[in-house]
Amino acid sequence: MFCTYRETFFDEILMKDACTEFSQLQREIVLVDLTLKTHNDLLVKVHRVVFAARLPKLQDCICSSTDSTLDWSRFSQSSVKALTEYVYTGRLEVSTRTVQPIYLLAASVELEHVRRWCEQFMVQRGFDGAQDVLYE
């Protein structure tokens, strides 16, 4: 039987403590103005201002574009939702099933501390395939 390990990582200052309302609005899909198109054309709705503030690499793209959709179709909906939860709350939960896709997504948006958390998780668990992911 395969055992799934989980670990939760936190920012020093949790976003949920700074502005709980944003996370609630996102969950209720209220006032969202940016759509993340994930694998199999599944959609995740978010607030442009929150993503621009929390993902500096995407700030210019998000702020200057009139397009309200980001094509993240190479990423699964579960990894995009996990990163979205992190963006809004400062809390990231990874498991043996989600760590690799989250690592790749974090690397693509240059969230180095999230990438390091995923590396730490994989290395501590002697994760199969970790070398392939870590040294792409």
TrEMBL record:
Pfam families: BTB. SUPFAM superfamilies: POZ domain. Residues 32-96 form the BTB domain. InterPro entries: BTB/POZ_dom (IPR000210), SKP1/BTB/POZ_sf (IPR011333). This is BTB domain-containing protein. It comes from Dibothriocephalus latus. Signal peptide: none annotated. It comes from the Eukaryota. Coiled coil: none annotated.
